[in-house]
Amino acid sequence: MKKLLFLIPLILLVFGLGWLGRDLYQKRNLSFDYAQNKNANPYAAFLNEVYSTIQTNYWDKMSDEQLVNLFQLGTEKLTGQPLGGTYKTKQDFEKMLDKDLKNVNQDKKKEFTTQLADLVLSNLKPFNRSRLYTQKQEQSLSNNVNNINPEVNDYQTLGVPKEARSSAIAQAYNEKKPEAQQELVQVEKAYKTLSDAGAKQVYDQSGVEPTMDYRFIGTDFLYIHQTKFSPTTLDELDRITKKYDIPGGPTVLILDLQNNIGGSVDLLPYLLGPFIGPDQYAYQFFHQGEKTDFKTRIG
User: Fold this and answer.
1) Alpha helices, DSSP H only, in the chain?
2) What is the pLDDT of residue 180?
3) What is the pTM of this model?
4) What are the coiled-coil residue ranges (predicted)?
């Protein structure tokens, strides 16, 4: 292909979910080795780990006084009572926890602990971007990031077995006449996945749906609409472009990111590389006052 057009009206959305991924560290990596700390208070230990994880991984610098204040405000909101005393240091925080947990009934300690952790996380800027996830919510998020919908089976949607040939898939699609618009959209989606050999192989192996719609415009333009970014996006783009990079094929590629819901910022250097060349600035990562530049890459 000789020319590349890159439509990026919503490219900032790539950063959106990328920041969200960093904000989710609190939800995925909180663990405590109770077997080696049998005498420790598990509720206090968990909140201590939340505290330490925020200080280590949160994008902005937070002093002990700022973080302790968040926990203090959260405690006061949950208990409806002001806390007596002044709390500014990590040691003050631990004393505050010890005092608070002693005043909570044993059967309410777990609920109090999780609510307090979630309240503190949700009040980190940007607000409500960091939360405490259950395992079910974490799996749902993982499915969304990877573009997997466990509630939908494309083969069942078209009414064909997994070993069906392309001709049988096409025939089943042509015979489907759903009346409801939602069903029609699902049938179209299933057909796009299963009628493309590469997309079908990925779907069979991992359940990952395609993130790209593509079609010809005239004779020279290959139009690709990138709907979201998932871990398979770069392979998908490579597969599609190689498929049509043939003699007599399209000479112009249009990559459209309109209405793209975002994805992992880690993909950005590889995505921009073929368009603006290698070793160009892709984005800058800011963490607690330090800036790290990431440049475009090819291959």
Assistant:
1) 12-23, 25-28, 42-57, 64-79, 90-102, 109-122, 135-146, 154-158, 166-175, 181-194, 197-206, 233-244, 268-276
2) 67
3) 0.68
4) 170-197
